Amino acid sequence: KYTTLNSIKFRNVGPGIMSGRVVDVDVNPNDPTEFYVAYATGGLWYTKNNGQSLVPVFDKENVFGIGDIAVNWKDGIIWIGTGEANSSRSSYSGLGVYKSVDKGKTWEHLGLIESHHIGKINLHPTDKNIAWVAVLGHLYSPSKERGIYKTTDGGKTWSKIRGGLPTAELGRIGLVMAPSDPKTIYTIIEAADKQGGI
User: What angle do CA 36, 154, 87 make, to 5 degrees?
Assistant: First the structure.
């Protein structure tokens, strides 16, 4: 069936940089024209006009690589896990987790500096102080920092969740929360101490 959407072609709305690689897009569930775009090596960008213009909101920190973002749209809180979580020579390490409580105007560093590469951040659906982070760790070498971390105080402190796997060799690049139970988390594992290993 023909609709007006059939005649609309995809187009690049920017920003465009060499090796940009979009790693995440987080869209306001109540307004799909407002969203953040996270780049592996190009920072974080914000739009409120469906991508017709984008504004950088993570340019003044000491790190440019991003692995994942998570946005609490209700409270205007943005979480960033730095360091692209791809095991390749072009993946730059990060400096842990950052958080903004004012939609990206200012940022606070929340630690996990030796995580190097963060693949996923999950936020609790009702408690803004609870978050989980999947840490890939150092690329191509054993790293005791690998694993899943949880905070219950908004990122002031972190506890490592033990999963019975040798975390020095197996990093975490993904987390999926069970829709009916936020206490149930599934994880994706990658052998980051060997090039290209999964």
Answer: 55
Query: What mean pLDDT do residues 163-167 have?
Result: 53
Count Cβ atoms below 10 Å from residue 141 Cβ, excluding itself: 11
* CB-based contacts of 6, cutoff 8 Å, min separation 6: none
User: What pLDDT was estimated at residue 165?
Assistant: 55
What the block records as the tokens of 188 is 């994706």
Asked if the model's pLDDT at residue 146 lies above 50, the reply is: yes
Q: What is the DSSP string of 121-156?
A: EEE-SS-TT-EEEEE--STTS--TT-EEEEESSTTS
DSSP secondary-structure letter at 198? Answer: -
The three-point CA angle 26-119-31 to 5° equals 5
Mean pLDDT over 77-85 rounds to 93
Secondary structure of residue 8 in the 3-state scheme: coil
Instruction: Please report the pLDDT score of residue 15 as a whole number.
Output: 54
- Which residues pair with residue 143 across a beta bridge? none
Neighbours of 101 (CB within 10 A): 16
